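Quick question, first post here. What does this chain look like in 3D?
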Amino acid sequence: MSSSTQPYPALVLIQVIITRYAYPVVLSIGIVGNFLNIILFLRKSLRTTSCNNYFFASAFSNLVALNIGIVAMLYTYDRPWAITTAYCKIRSYMFNASQQISRYLIVSACIDRFALCSTNATLRQFSRVQVARRCVIPFIIIIWHVFPIYMLVFNSAVNTSCVYPGVSALVNSIYGMSFVGFLPPTLMLIFSTLTIRNLTSRQDRRHVHPLSIVNINVSTDRDRKQQKKDQQVFAMLIVQVIVYVITTSMGSINLVYSVATAYMGIEKSIERKAIESFISSVTGILNYTSPSLSFYLFLLVSSLYRKEMKLVIRQVCTRCGLRWIVNNNSVGNSRATHHSRLVNHAMIVLLIIGLIIQLVDIPFHLNFLRFGIVLPSIPFICLIWWFIDIGLYNGFTIIMAWSSIHRYLFIFHDQIFFRGKKRFLFHYLPLIILILYILIFYIIAIIFPPCMHAFDYTLPVCNDYPCYLDDFILGLWDSIVN
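> Answer (accepted):
Ran it through. Tokens below.
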């Protein structure tokens, strides 16, 4: 049914925008964030905390869930013929297993923090790193690969839709309401609340029984650092629980409503079905929000996490021979020297982008001139060529425009770059945002377009015309803004 015959065409348009544009953005943000989570939680200063091991394992399962869930959905959105029974069985099983593993790893992290703050010595043993790695995480992975096995048996494709026939539909609904919608957020909230209560009680006990001078001397810097680390880890956990509960509560309510109305046999009008379809679309993308935002939430609330991120960036720059970009403690670090380093950051980005363009674009053109055809003649080569020749070239222009504004600020308003916060706001943040914008926009427009590409392997750059340029929203935005 076209949007013109729908009772609420605006809702249909919003659903299309969510599917074609919002999902690729969430996917890109989630892949980058969870990949960085894996890198950071492998660092010694973070992996020695038991709770962080749950975050580390959760990042892996989030990557699987995002790729299985969103990539498969985007592929079949314009290719309904690809929805087969095998597709339904494999996608539903792998997606559900990975999501459940991620959810219950966060539940285990909540229990871990509760055990750490407990006055019971036996219970505190649960918060050890060895328990997390050898017992809890393997158990969760195994149990949530066993529970959803019924999906491999009963899920099937009917009229380009994945459905559960007969009694299996009721089983799947009960499973979703109990183990997905009710149990995880309830356990998260219960153990988070108990942890906060234990922390408050421990603080009260310290006021009633203050430490003696001897105890103060015994208290070491290592203990204080560990306590600060535990506090920041708990803050990371709390903010993730809050976001999870907020983003999944609407989906849980919608699931209960759908099951109730289905088994009550209520007749639904076209208008009601349109509204329900729109709500399902919104709750669907919210379901991916929490797994995609964990890295950015951790950066927001934890100074330790931000410090580790800076150290990773510094190590990468050092290994790439760019140590001077991040090292501000070298001899002769005068104001002029420091300013020249900041000015050169945008130039370094331009050099890297230009190098990538030349290393890919020129060999591809030479290969075409030699054989008279794009080789190998596969869509992947065309997508890479388009991304380099169009995406990175336009990105080069955008960074060049920003560097002009940046240079003006350095000349006439250099005082904004003296302090750390202002320097980050006016120097680092715009550059980071522009780089992420370039990557995300052209990945969406070229790799996940709202249309079907037409590849002509007999022409350079596969016809040099991605289909997104014909799309009203993406084409107009790329022409005017980029």
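The two ends are 34 Å apart (CA to CA).
Residues 221-263 form the longest helix (43 residues).
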